[in-house]
Here is the input.
Amino acid sequence: MKVLVLHSLPPREAAGRTLDEFDLSAAAQNIAAVLPGAVAAGVCGEVPEILALLAAHRPDVVFNACEAPLGRPDLEAHVAALLEWLGVRFTGSGSETLALCRRKDRAKAVMAAVGVPAPRANGFPCIVKPADEDGSAGIHAASICEDAGALEKAKALLAGRTLVEEFLPGREFAVALWGADDPQHVSIGETLFLNGLRLNTYSAKWEPDSDDFANSPISYTSAIDPPLREAIFRAASGAWTAVGARGYARIDIRLDAAENPFVLDVNPNPELGPGVGICRAAQEAGWTWERFVRQQVAWA
Here is the structure.
């Protein structure tokens, strides 16, 4: 089987964001390395460029690792839509799911309609974040607001649509799910907030030299009682089904004061780099990376 690992290349500039966030080359090589004969190809994101690669390689399956064509995260769904239009099999979620999950407010409404627990939209303390960004862009310590004045200041720092939710005080979990159409496998890591850090900021995800990064390690050995683990899986799998995910996804879950799980975010196109993100989650669950990648190709 001929597999083309298609990934987006970082832009020359990324205002307010680190270029490392957009560099998918290591993730693409991590995928291609366990698929004999696979070709990893980076694209800026122009449609003719992608069409030329498809014509040159004629893949049976595209492993879709495109997150920001032309350096624009808002175009994430467009590569999947192009592959759908062309009838090319590809891994991961389809264009409708990718587009929906980029709009956190709309995804939340879809999940709420089928009973998936999500934070309420009122009360203090609250958190304000961009409604249509990914990778924790725009999220920092001051995103947590204790009163109306702090909320207005935090909103003024964001240029686009915003989403305001209650800030939940409990533990936070990164739930990796994978399966063909249903979430058949799960790996749960707990984000440990240290030294006063209270949430996953942009720095915590993308700036390895920052205090926030050092103070937010993920542990896969945290004690989680079986009833809580089941409740976390139930909430995450409900979110998967509600947004129509397939292949793999990361669901961020946070507990309230009574240890009830709530879905914070659904990421249907999460990190695939070596030793992090879905790669680490699968390995922590006892899968080899080769098994995971080959299974994704089979499910495409």
Residues 3-90 form one domain. Residues 226-243 form the longest helix (18 residues). The mean pLDDT is 94.
